[in-house]
Amino acid sequence: ESRAANASNKEINIQWYIPPLAKPSIYTETKVLLLYAYNTKPVKISNIKTFSSMSIFSGHLWIPLARIVSLREKLSDLKQQVEMLMQNSKSLSSASESISFLEQSETLKIISSKNPKMNVEKVHLDEKTEEMAKRCLSEVKALLSVVPALSLPLTEIPFDVTLQSIASLEDMFDPANGCIITEESLFNWIISLFH
User: Fold this and answer.
1) What is the reported pLDDT for 33?
2) Distances (CA, A) of 5 to 8, 43, 48, 186
3) d(Cα 80, Cα 86) in Å, to the nearest integer?
4) Contact 71, 140 (CB under 8 A)
5) With contact defined as beta carbons under 8 Å apart, do 138 and 71 qualify?
6) How far is CA 162 from the centre of its chain?
7) Which of the listed residues 26, 78, 122, 157 has the most CB atoms within 10 Å of its CB?
8) The 11-17 sheet, strands edge to edge
9) What does DSSP assign to residue 190?
10) Residues with Cβ within 8 Å of residue 171, at least 6 apart in sequence
11) For the residues 74-80, what does the mean pLDDT come to?
12) What is the pLDDT of residue 107?
């Protein structure tokens, strides 16, 4: 069955549209169009002419390209930091179980090659990484909020930080590609920003 006709329990589909480059004025910045659609219940469309659902929503936002590029770089840095924290955590736990780092790396390679999904284990953040995450997420909030000027910086992280959630956010702000987000706590936070 087609992905276009079916959707899981909760998912957000993100697509970017970069308009053909018209000569921008020196007073305007280049903007791209974020197109989103999400469902809050499973969806199965068998006949488009008779389909109607109260659990499907869509919208769009014009966002400055420079801010998207900047945010994506920050999210990439955050993802690397989370990966390092996870590796350090695994190294500490494996050391206590007297497994060598090399054996652990080989085991992780085997696991990751068998399971293409990223780690959904909650990551304990150190102070530096937590502040980095709050800054990135405050910027995400400002970009996706209906009234960005009223968007206050975050004082706490609004969802469970996993490698998968950070990677999903990084993918979300890649204007060359679209993405689908299904992780529930991240999904709930993002749709709250669209309202």
Assistant:
1) 93
2) 11, 8, 9, 23
3) 10
4) yes
5) no
6) 11
7) 78
8) 56-64, 31-39, 11-17, 179-181
9) H
10) 177, 179
11) 95
12) 43
